[in-house]
């Protein structure tokens, strides 16, 4: 080690250490698939519930101002409750698969990188959630889903430097869907399903195929 | 070739020290335990190498209490950053053959 200098080995080791210590790499693609399935179920439940409460085309009427302020306010607990349950389920599923992957690869789950990832996600998400609530309160219901997609996409973009590269792509997709949604308020639930559901599932499968297929270090291959 | 090898910084001769510098440059600051776990080292091993880097003026140490537990945080100094970048440049020069 004293006189033998292997510059290539040193450089690649430095690079690997910098990556490993500054990025949260245990994120599992299956977490994305699971969260996407939860979101699709949630969009379906919201669709059925709104048809039940408001009749056919329930969401479109709510989104385009076809529902009075009193009815709108009366629906808020149902919608917020549904959102809270979905976020909770999505987080549980994502946490389960990510913890499983961290255990398999022998990486630490909670460290500096995970903390920075959580922080850079939570600030824009909290702001986005409150902003969406304010839009609903003001009657701009058609902008709620686009706002959720935009804030979520921007949160992912800002968090992507602390985790897998795919997260940046997922962020751009959510932002793009949010912008499309601004033009199509009645189709909000479809865009919700596309962004939080389908995009999560597709990116999750992509991440799974890229990082988790084949034998893991010190583990039997996944079935 | 010989000239370039001499340009390599003696303070970074050991892979543990390179590892410590890599973690600190990628993260601004890191605690003793974070360094230990990321680099998979024992307490004594890490402590002696960090002490060498501190002595060279490349790493700054700050101690504080988190609750009632003492916690030591390390950050890279400006000199450390410059020295590490020069070391990397020297490695790259070796690779490009000259």
Largest binding interface between chains:
A-B, 19 and 22 residues
Q: How would you sum up the major sheet of chain B? A: 3 strands, antiparallel
- How large is the share of residues in beta strands of chain B? 15-25%
Shape of chain B: elongated
Quickly count the helices of chain A. 8
Number of helices of chain B: 5
Based on DSSP secondary structure assignment, what is the total number of beta strands of chain B? 3
Structural summary, described in words:
The complex is a heterodimer of chains A (about 220) and B (about 100). Chain A is mainly α and about 220 residues long. Chain A contains eight helices and no strands. The N and C termini of chain A lie far apart (about 40 Å). In chain A, about 35% of the residues are buried. By secondary structure, chain B is an alpha+beta fold. In chain B, strands 1-3-2 form a three-stranded antiparallel beta sheet. The termini of chain B are close together. In chain B, about 60% of the residues lie in helices and about 20% in strands. At the A-B interface, helix 1 of A face helix 2, helix 3 and helix 5 of B.
Name the descriptors.
heterodimer, A: about 220 residues, mainly alpha, 8 helices, about 75% helix, about 0% strand, disordered C terminus, B: about 100 residues, alpha+beta, three-stranded antiparallel beta sheet, 5 helices, 3 strands, about 60% helix, about 20% strand, elongated
Q: Quick gist of this model?
A:
With 223 residues, chain A is mainly alpha-helical.
């Amino acid at each position: 080690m004293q006189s033998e200098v292997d510059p290539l080995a040193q450089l690649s080791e430095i690079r690997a250490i910098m990556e490993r210590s500054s990025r949260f790499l245990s994120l599992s693609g299956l977490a994305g698939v699971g969260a996407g399935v939860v979101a699709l179920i949630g969009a379906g439940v919201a669709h059925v519930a709104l048809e039940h409460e408001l009749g056919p085309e329930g969401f479109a009427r709510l989104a385009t101002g076809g529902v009075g302020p009193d009815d709108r306010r009366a629906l808020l607990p149902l919608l917020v409750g549904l959102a809270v349950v979905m976020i909770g389920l999505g987080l549980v599923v994502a946490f389960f698969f990510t913890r499983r992957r961290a255990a398999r690869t022998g990486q630490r789950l909670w460290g500096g990188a995970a903390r920075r990832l959580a922080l850079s996600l939570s600030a824009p998400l909290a702001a986005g959630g409150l902003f969406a609530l304010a839009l609903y309160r003001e009657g701009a219901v058609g902008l709620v889903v686009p706002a959720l997609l935009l804030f979520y996409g921007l949160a992912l973009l800002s968090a992507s430097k602390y985790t897998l590269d795919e997260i940046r792509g997922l962020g751009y997709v959510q932002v793009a869907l949010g912008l499309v949604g601004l033009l199509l308020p009645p189709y909000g639930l479809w865009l919700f399903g596309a962004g939080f559901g389908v995009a999560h599932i597709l990116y999750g499968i992509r991440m799974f195929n890229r990082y988790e297929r084949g034998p893991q270090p010190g583990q039997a291959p996944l079935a | 070739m010989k000239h370039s090898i001499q340009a390599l910084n003696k303070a970074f001769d050991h892979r543990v020290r390179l590892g410590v510098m890599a973690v600190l440059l990628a993260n601004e600051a890191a605690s003793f335990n974070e360094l230990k776990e990321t680099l998979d080292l024992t307490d004594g091993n890490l402590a002696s190498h960090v002490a060498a880097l501190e002595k060279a003026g490349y790493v700054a140490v700050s101690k504080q209490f988190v609750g009632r537990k003492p916690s030591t945080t390390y950050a890279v100094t400006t000199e450390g950053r410059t020295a590490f970048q020069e070391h990397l440049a020297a490695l790259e020069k070796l690779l490009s053959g000259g």
